[in-house]
Amino acid sequence: WVHGTRRTFATVPADHGNCNVGSLTQGLRSLDEAAEGQDVAALVDAGWVTPDMFPAIPTVSERPGAITYGPLAETTIEPDVVFLRINPKQAMMLHAAVPDLRFEGKPQCHIVPIAKEQGQVAVSVGCMLSRVRTRMATSELTCAIPAARLPDVASALGQVPRPTTPWPATPPTTMPAFARSSSLGAPSWPPNARPSLDPRGQCSRAGVTPPGTVVFGTPAAA
Questions:
Q1: The whole model's pTM is what?
Q2: pLDDT at 138 over 70
Q3: What is the pLDDT of residue 1?
Q4: What are phi and psi of 36, to 5 degrees?
Q5: Do 85 and 208 contact (CB within 8 A), yes or no?
Q6: Which residues pair with 190 in a beta bridge?
Q7: Of 132, 96, 97, 126, which is closest to residue 111 (Cα–Cα)?
Q8: What is the separation of C-alpha 218 from the centre of its chain, rounded to a whole number of angstroms?
Q9: DSSP E strands, 3-56
Q10: Other CB atoms closer than 10 Å to residue 211's CB: what's the count?
Q11: Which H or E run contains 31?
């Protein structure tokens, strides 16, 4: 999906063959098929996962003939999921706007079926395998939004209150281990620095990877 931020393309099940966990979550392989993979065996042997974890991993329920990825702003087909890379501050704003926001751990890719199948907005802290493969920065998280909920999510983000007292121009070099919020005053975003999503899901803060679409369908449709 990294390339999906720059161009539109479609994949077939065989294109996902290098990751059995990803193939499982995207509905491309059954649990029994994924369990036979050498990569899964290596993960279990290393203690990264345990066999009892796999049945509980969310998956896409219907096997797609193809999955299309591409920049949201350029898509000509109706997406199933909008996929974002966000920073922790943006996750904070999203949590304020979406009360039922889910925070998930490994595997990173299972937030796609959470959005597609369960209709929930989900943020993932990622997993080391996916972070290495997709070259995610340590400051980044991933987020999956059901496409049908995107207008409401964008509208809710616009309603999140904006604090009024500015932050210091230069953060202090040291901070106490714990500070009462009443001693800090009411902070606000510096000019043009408030993280937000516009109605098409674009991250407005500079340097954040723009969102891409994830569309499940048939090769003909893709």
A1: 0.71
A2: yes
A3: 67
A4: -85, -10
A5: yes
A6: none
A7: 126
A8: 23
A9: 9-11
A10: 26
A11: helix 31-35
Is residue 216 within 8 A of residue 146, CB to CB? The reply is: no
- What lies within 8 Å, CB to CB, of 203 at 6+ separation is 84, 85, 86, 90, 195, 196, 197, 209, 210, 211
165 bridge partner residues: 187
The answer to whether residue 26 scores a pLDDT higher than 70 is: yes
pLDDT for res 149: 95
- Parallel/antiparallel/unpaired status of strands 212-217 and 66-71: antiparallel
Q: Which residues, including other chains, have CB under 8 Å from residue 121's CB and lie 6 or more apart?
A: 94, 98, 100, 101, 102, 115, 143, 144, 145, 146, 149, 153
113: which residues sit within 8 A by CB, 6+ positions away? 25, 26, 27, 58, 59, 60, 61
- Name the amino acid, one letter, at 218: T
State the pairing for strand pair 81-86/141-146.
Answer: antiparallel
- Categorise residue 207: left if φ over 0, alpha if ψ from -120 to 50, beta otherwise: left
d(CA 57, CA 214): 19
- Please answer whether residues 124 and 136 qualify as being in contact, where contact means their C-beta atoms are separated by less than 8 angstroms: no
b/e map 89-118, b = 16+ CB within 10 Å: ebbebbeebbeebeebebbbbbbbbbbbbe
- 88-97 helix and 150-159 helix, angle to the nearest 10 degrees: 100
DSSP designation for 210: P
Q: Is the pLDDT of residue 103 over 60?
A: yes
What lies within 8 Å, CB to CB, of 220 at 6+ separation is 65
Q: Which two tokens stand for residue 176?
A: 């106490």
What is the residue-averaged pLDDT of the chain?
A: 74
